[in-house]
Task: structure prediction
Amino acid sequence: MTDYNTVVKTIPVTRTGDVITMGVTSAVWARLHAPVTPPLPIGKPFLPSAEHVKDDRFLQLYPQTRRSQGDIAHKAFEEGSHPQMVEGISSPTRGANVTDLFSPYQLGSLKLTNRLVMAPLTRNRAGAGEAPTELAAEYYAQRAGAGLIISEGTQPCAIGQGYPHTPGLHTDEQVAGWTLVADAVHARGGRIVAQLMHAGRISHHAITGLRPVAPSAITPAGEVYTEQGMKAFEAPRALEAAELPGVVAEFVDAARRAVRAGLDGVELHAANGYLLQQFLADGSNIRTDGYGGSPQNRARFVVEVATAVAQAIGADKVGIRISPGGTFNNVTETETEQTYTALLDALNPLGLLYLHILEGPDTSFHEQLRKQWDGTVMFNTGFTGSSDLSTAQEAIDTGATDLFCIGRGFLANPDLVERLRIGAGLNKPDMETFYSGGAKGYTDYPVLSA
Result:
């Protein structure tokens, strides 16, 4: 009998959406050595039926048919029964490999159990002193099935807090709280990094007791939630050049505290209109010193933060999130390509753990960033698109990303990975409890029966 591992490397298969066209070699081999019902056509387009994808032998040949929506059922991969990478299957763009979303991925020194990442999600449930609690430890541990968890945005200093009851990483009490979280996630075999988020001008003295800071004294449009209700953003104070090393030091201190707490690393939040992106964006940065003006100058502060944090805890423990062209929190960019090209040019030599790209309006530019970045890329459709399984698989299949980030799916489904693996239904997120505090809508979402 012909060896599967040999033949699979030569299978000429193409796919458009869920329609597969098989070459003669694959069809003949499949009929002779892995017969399935209905029979597989030779050299003709066909849509695999539910019967096809119930057959593990068919899935071994065509893992790209695994879906959780539409007419194609989703089936688990049998680990160890065949290679995790199937060579020779074409994709709409790159056509290099079809990769199992549920296969392990080596991220620096971290071995992830799958390629699905839990996105950072603000939940406003920090306890006294803005420290994570046992409840937070339970919440994150429930979701340890994710290949990697990125924590909610966590302020590296008091003035960096953007919303009530978000956790920090600048006091010993907060480190103790994050230790609870890290221990709980690791006890269930998971991996977790803390997202370091300095809100900059997206804050209010009603939250921190301090006037917000920013690259320039430009007030963003809109309002922010405080304990006293919604309040219009206030004019931030422009940071002096002499203050910037101190802000860098706050990021470094928070990163060291994250490692001390037992977390697996940190993600620098340079997206969504917060402080680091405020420096990148020409709509919020009109400085005339070495941190403003040209794309390279506007990228300078972000690079200094990343460099210092990488030197402090190791580049293999530092990821970074960007949202090129995004407009969240009233951020505006008119030189997006030049700015992020300059940023990646400066970051690439650092050897950071990953680049997390939040989808924006210009998807073609994101493909350029993917090619420019030397290391692991993580993709997040964010506010612009679907985060379902078929979208994730397509992003992996086409080479658009190495890891795929999902937010609300993990929020409402602690066992999301297993549900997607077997094609089970999903809980719907309760938006009324996203930021309400307490266990309801936080740790009480049901999981599949054992």
Observations:
- The chain has two domains: 4-98, 105-433.
- Residues 4-98 form one domain.
- The chain has 14 helices and 19 strands.
